[in-house]
Every structure is written in C-alpha cells, then in structure tokens.
From TrEMBL:
One of its GO terms (molecular function) is hydrolase activity. Residues 63-334 form the Beta-lactamase-related domain. Gene3D superfamilies: DD-peptidase/beta-lactamase superfamily. It comes from the Bacteria. Residues 1-22 form the signal peptide. This is Serine hydrolase. PROSITE patterns: PROKAR_LIPOPROTEIN (PS51257). Keywords: Hydrolase, Signal.
Length: 356
C-alpha cells in the first residue's frame, strides 16, 4: 500500500511538472487568465496601474501577457495604427531565415551591394556592412528620407570608421530594409505576412494598410512603415519570448533571436553618443534593432529588451518572469507619449508582479 502511494505521488509530481513547463499560446483569439491574482498580479495593483494609464499617459491600447495569457488590458487593443520605429525590430526578425540560409551575408559592404544615394557616399562610408547598419554603427550620417532619429548628434561625415561608433540614424534602418528586399527579391510586407502574421494567427493584420513613404529628394530609400494592433504586437513579443517557437513550429531560430538581442552597444556608449538618453529613466543598450534594458537592480527587468517607436509605441519582453507588454498611442487622435513615459510604463507594469 505504501509503495503504491509513493508511486501515485511520484506520478502526480511528474504530471504537475509537465503541466507547469507547457507553454501557452493564443489561437485565433487570446485567452484571459481566470484569476490573475493567484498567479502574482494583485487586483488592487492592477487597478492602480490602470488608473495610472488613464491619468498620466495618452496610451490608447495596452496588453500585459503572463505565461501566454492576458492578465491585464486597457483601451482599444484591436485597432490597427502606426507603430513607428517598432518596425525596425520586426525587420530584424525577418532577416533571420535569410541570414541563416546564406541569402543575406551580414558582412557584405555597401560598396559590394552597390548602395549609393542622392548625396554620394564617401569611400570610407562604403565600407560599412549590413551588420553595421542593423546595429546602428554604420558611420554613415546622411539624412534619412524620414525624420525621428538622433542624427543631430552625429560626428562629422567620414570622421569615424564603420562599426566604431553608435548612432541611431534612420538612414541605416531604411537602407537595411532596401537591402533586405534587394537580396531576397521579396517585399517586406509580404514577408511579414508569410513569416509572422499568418503563422501567429494575427487577428487584425491588414496587408492593404502597409505602405512605404519618405522624401525621395533627400534619400532614395523610403521608410517601411507598419500598422499593427496592440494585441498583434503582443504576439510578436510572445514569439520573441519563446525564442522564436510558436506552438510546434520554430518560426525564427533560437540562435537568431539570441543574435538580435545580443548587446552590440552598451548603455554607457549609447548615452555618450546621445546624452539625452541619460534622461529616459532606464539605461538602454542596443542589439540588432532591439533596445536592451541594462544596469538595473530589479530582477524582473533582467535581460529584458524592447521595440520602441515615437509617440508611444512599445513591445517589451521580460524573459525572467515570462511576461510581454505591448502598448501604443494612436497618433490619429493627436495623442502622444514621451520616451520617459514609455520607460515608466515599462517599469510600473512589472512592479505589479509579486513573483508567485
């Protein structure tokens, strides 16, 4: 009898262990946690966080996901709107398959790729590689076809070698998009649909909304703007959190997820290049088009990383606590959030979690 009881207890333990390790994913719709408080999200704290969102931000949609289920949502999470520079992080994800199958060689230079612009590239600038572009370390300080970067902090053209200095400049990112299409012979938006939207069962993806734009008298490389809903942004974050795996499919290799979230620029170097970053409230390094949270004493923020866009667009992944945060501010309503507000939301969202 005692032996039988020990066997039953052992089986129960094994079953519970397997269940706890099983990953949860949304199907056509997201599932909501039935009792968030029981899994570490106290009701009072979640209510206070929502009040903060209403009273102190201009966020129009927010989703907080834990263990693959929504534990908190606010606003219109199904509305598609402009996600600004979050587009860059999504492009980095698309690169993976083509880097790994050899279609794209990250060590190819701009010269080898026949890249030039309205303003001619200097010989030194032509030495920049694709790797330099996606790390924001090209040393090319031409104006992009769209604004919204830190080019005003750029050194004199030709004064730094490619790869030696970090600067967040839209020229790099727009050219990275152009090169992706040139080398793969595929449209970025078609790739989003094939690699991400369809396999992730995005609820709101609309291919017809996606369009490029930019001033082609300044640069011939347009910005590949994107429109997503908040709940579909959360699917992007969950895919990254799961190291590129979605249910039974490896959509992006785990190695590539690690590559794009690996530090290429430390927070201290980024702040030296752009002193304004010291005022943001979190210390951020940089990978391949993903921002990395560094120099934090909060264990919930350890190894966290983020896609960020102007006006208040954000996807943040917190690997240590199995959490994804997605929020946005729809500019159509003439609302915006500062970078400092984004940082506060990123911190306050996980301060709710008590680690159960």
């Amino acid at each position: 009898m005692r032996k039988a009881l020990l066997i039953i207890c052992s089986l129960t333990f094994l079953l519970s262990s397997c269940q706890s390790e099983a990953q949860t994913y949304p199907d056509e719709t997201w599932s909501r946690a039935e009792n968030p408080e029981a899994t570490g999200w106290p009701d009072t704290d979640r209510t206070n966080f929502k009040r903060y969102i209403i009273d102190s931000t201009n966020i129009t949609g927010l989703v907080l996901v834990h263990n693959g289920q929504i534990v908190l949502e606010y606003g219109n999470i199904s509305e598609n709107s402009y996600i600004a520079s979050c587009r860059k992080s999504i492009l980095s994800m698309l690169y993976g398959t083509y880097v790994e199958n050899g279609t794209i060689d990250l060590d190819n230079t701009l010269d080898e790729l026949n890249i030039n612009d309205v303003t001619e590239l200097l010989p030194e600038e032509k030495k920049a590689t694709i790797k330099d572009l996606i790390a924001a370390r090209s040393g090319v300080y031409l104006r992009g076809s769209n604004g919204g970067d830190f080019r005003r902090f750029a050194p004199e053209r030709g004064s730094v070698a490619p790869g030696s200095h970090w600067l967040y400049n839209n020229w790099d990112f727009n050219v990275a998009g152009y090169i992706f299409e040139q080398e793969t012979q595929s449209n970025i938006y078609d790739e989003i649909e094939a690699q991400l939207a369809k396999p992730l069962q995005m609820q709101d993806w609309d291919r017809t909304l996606q369009k490029k734009s930019g001033n082609n008298t300044i640069s011939k490389f347009p910005a590949y703007h994107m429109w997503f809903s908040t709940r579909d942004m959360a699917r992007i974050g969950l895919l990254m959190l799961r190291n590129g795996e979605w249910k039974d499919s490896q959509l992006i290799s785990e190695d590539w997820v690690q590559e794009i979230t690996k530090q290429r620029t430390s927070y201290s170097e980024a702040q030296k290049s752009v002193p304004l970053l010291k005022e943001d409230g979190l210390d951020l390094g940089y990978g391949y088009m993903w921002w990395l949270i560094e120099n934090t004493n909060d264990p919930r923020l350890k190894n966290a990383y983020s896609a960020q866009g102007a006006l208040g667009q954000n996807i943040t992944v917190y690997p240590e606590i199995d959490v994804v945060l997605a929020f946005k501010t729809n500019s159509v309503y003439r609302r915006r959030n500062s970078i400092q507000t984004q940082m506060k939301v990123m911190q306050k969202a996980v301060e709710i979690y008590d680690g159960r």
